[in-house]
Predict the structure.
Amino acid sequence: MQEPSAPSPPRAIVYYNSACPVCDAGVCAMRDRLPDDSVEWVDVHARPEVLTPLGLHLEDVRERLHLVDASGSQRIGADAIAGVLALSPRWRWLAGPMQWPGLHAIGAWLYNTFARQLYRWNRARGHW
């Protein structure tokens, strides 16, 4: 008789848009630095249907990175990046300071400003 395999621990899920060349490059860089089993990477450009059960809209994920962590909490934008960095043995140290009140506010503002401009640029270039 074969023993049942232990259930795999819940993984974080990152939702990103591969149609954006900048986003795709960033995700590829993050993916290369994380253990294979720590994150599930979901390209919403290829699989937009996965967003409906989560109550997410495609345009929201096209604009900002989304992460559902192993506990089921949803993190968006700079918080999602901090969550991904926290999973990397090499970059984990950076995730903590990104959550400090002053740095968090500045980081979120910078990320949101950049993401908004990048989203507009992608729309203008037809990267959908």
In short: The mean pLDDT is 89.
